[in-house]
Amino acid sequence: MDQGVILTAESRPSPWGNVAKPIIQCSLAEVMSEELAKELQLEEESHTFPKEILTDDGPFLTGDNIDTSSDEILAQMLQTQFDKEFDAQLSREEKKFNGDSKVSISFDNYRKLHPCEESDSSEDEVDWQDTRHDPYKADKPTTTPKKGFIGKGKDITTKHDEVVCGRKNTARMENFTPEFQVGDGIGMDLKLSNQVFNALKQHSFSEQRRSARLHDKKEVSTAEKVVDPKTRLLLYKMVNAGVLETVNGCVSTGKESVVFHANGGRMEDQIVPAECALKVFKTTLNEFKNRDKYIKDDYRFKDRFSKLNPRKIIRMWAEKEMHNLKRMQSAGIACPEVVLLKKHVLVMSFIGKDQIPAPTLKEAKLGLEESKQAYYQVLSMMKILYEQCNLVHADLSEYNMMWHDGKVWLIDVSQSVEPTHPHGLEFLFRDCRNVSQFFQKAGVAETPNARELFNVVSGLNITSDNQVDFMAEIEALEKMNEDHVQMHGKKVSMYQKDDDGPPRIYDE
Ligand code: ATP
Ligand code: MN
User: Fold this and answer.
1) Which of 161, 298, 395, 412 is catalytic?
2) Closest ligand to the CA of 415
3) Is domain 221-357 annotated with CATH 3.30.200.20?
4) Which architecture does CATH list for 360-508?
5) Is the C or the N end of the chain the one with fewer CB within 10 Å?
């Protein structure tokens, strides 16, 4: 410590040495200016941590050359030492606790975290870093180990590694809001200290708040208004990666999703349609709560469901829609083509033209002849969906069918399930009722009633002539299916009717 300080009334002695200069507030332009960057870099270098305290096993503070006049460095040193001792004690406790037991309990969660790790533990922020078009990819450490070792004890990289921390911080700047200009430093091998990174992060937040206030005053694009910042960032990244050219207006704001129009860009291994629809699943769970039954009992998603948090469940809806669309696509059913799925955002081909979505069957004013054609198409699609895709739409109605290019297109299949879903046949019956009612109202004389349609689509032969009994039979079948699952521990492959007997379940 500096012993030569002359004590006056103005300069009180501080047990920590000299009082650090207050940080001067500056604007973003200044923060990003090159001169400042140089200054910061110089300052950084002069404030570099002594090597000894950065390695886990090194001695603590040995050299005479260590500058102890900075409160900050001193405090950091003490904190590092404290953390180290704490962790060492924890390791001893852990060892004692576990003894020779084969099953051991890890105390890892109680270890002190280095501030670098602490500053960002959200898996979301670094979840998607699309580097496919990143010319710097080769130089950029995208797979930095969180902590621990690379190789067999050699080349040990600890989380305290200053260089690694610095690079990580630089990479994290990519996750600031789109409006926050971080320059092109991300691509260079730039190492940002925690201090600088945190200052920038704070600045990014306040900029975000400020720009949100500004945006309130003037009209902004619809896309920005209806989605949360994280989604906006996701959309921005898609544009940035070139997958999309632009994200345009909002086509629909439903209960569970918001749909946008976007101009397609390009992908390396895939053709991106010129017009795309982005279905953004809402990340507020409320609307989805009553739809749990569609996914909870779907064996494809069952195991994962119970372990997931609400955000992940929403992603699962998007994933489910993607899988279902793909199945339909490969069976030749007219439906949107999947382009890309990122978290809760599904990119697909746009059904419509020049940013105007095709009308739904509800909206399209079809003549009788067209209605008749539409009916036969729907019938055929329902059969293919059931037989080839092994799916029941489960929300089929005139609202989820579009009329485009003289044919019917099926959309909105996130809730679609396999027929052997515990309520699959009930859902199918409901679909049949909607379809039957719609085309009967439209005057298509060929339209059968819901029960007949159900039998045609499912290939089952349920004979009850009234709806109550019909439903009871359906439920009995579903129950049989469930019992089969209970007994054999696996689901049945499909329902099938006997030629001269009641419907039964069929196992391959
Ligand atoms: P809702 O609650 O209104 O049913 P949703 O959340 O179930 O909405 P969808 O039914 O998939 O979402 O889509 C809502 C609307 O967005 C559709 O009625 C249609 O107008 C439009 N839309 C959805 N997908 C596409 C697409 N691929 N191309 C064009 N428009 C689409
Ligand atoms: Mn819908």
Assistant:
1) 395
2) 1
3) yes
4) Orthogonal Bundle (1.10)
5) C
